[in-house]
């Protein structure tokens, strides 16, 4: 069974530029999560989807961050415009049961 | 009340020894407690998990001990090996909601 796929793995951009991250969850997993992981810290939730519906986006900075999950499968997380403080690893996770969450390798973003 | 506190921040253990990492939580509504292992450049990988109706769960060399009254749980790694060197995160969740992670423990196993 293939795991959670994320791309790109690495992204370097100038501040104020837009950036997008893509996630393909494990087949059949209805719940999809985007987490932010700062260096040396545990992941923190940005948004949770149940199928196409964003059911928890309370931690998503909506002035610059947006996300979508069309057709309840793949998801895209966008930042526009990026700031220096957005440099971090963006992790996607999926779950079938709502308990066990399986993470992808993450996208390491560097904002210069 | 959403915090999960993890200790120690870093841990050095000799090969063959027992590694012990501790976590404490406050939210009594949490009902699922997993441990994740993360290697540099990789995403967290689910290692082992426990529900609050069980006091201990063992999978191979990894054991979770759970103390509901103290709101604490711990990970024990028996016969620690150099390949176990990684960062370990405890976490907690309520239902299908977000995982709340601890701060992480960097474990080093000396050969």
SSE diagram, text form:
The complex is a heterodimer of chains A (112) and B (111).
Chain A: E1 5-7, E2 10-13, E3 19-24, E4 31-37, E5 44-50, E6 53-56, E7 65-68, E8 75-79, E9 88-95, E10 102-103, E11 107-111
Parallel strand pairs in A: 2-11
Antiparallel strand pairs in A: 1-3, 3-8, 4-5, 4-9, 5-6, 7-8, 9-10, 9-11
Chain B: E1 4-7, E2 10-14, E3 19-25, E4 33-38, E5 45-50, E6 56-59, E7 62-67, E8 72-77, E9 86-92, E10 100-101, E11 105-110
Parallel strand pairs in B: 2-11
Antiparallel strand pairs in B: 1-3, 3-8, 4-5, 4-9, 6-7, 7-8, 9-10, 9-11
Q: What does this molecule look like?
A:
The complex is a heterodimer of chains A (112) and B (111). Chain A is mainly β. Chain A contains no helices and 11 strands. Chain A has strands at 5-7, 10-13, 19-24, 31-37, 44-50, 53-56, 65-68, 75-79, 88-95, 102-103, 107-111. In chain A, the strands form 2 sheets. In chain A, strands 2, 4, 5, 6, 9, 10 and 11 form a 7-stranded mixed beta sheet that branches. Chain A has a 4-stranded antiparallel beta sheet with strand order 1-3-8-7, with no helix packed on it. In chain A, a hairpin with a 6-residue loop joins strand 9 and strand 10 (102-103). Chain A is globular. Chain A starts with a strand and ends with a strand. The model of chain A has no long low-confidence stretch (mean pLDDT 95). With 111 residues, chain B is mainly beta. Chain B contains no helices and 11 strands. Chain B has strands at residues 4-7, 10-14, 19-25, 33-38, 45-50, 56-59, 62-67, 72-77, 86-92, 100-101, 105-110. In chain B, the strands form 2 sheets. In chain B, strands 2, 4, 5, 9, 10 and 11 form a 6-stranded mixed beta sheet that branches. In chain B, strands 1-3-8-7-6 form a 5-stranded antiparallel beta sheet, with no helix packed on it. Chain B starts with a strand and ends with a strand. The model of chain B has no long low-confidence stretch (mean pLDDT 95). The interface between A and B is medium-sized, with 25 and 22 residues.
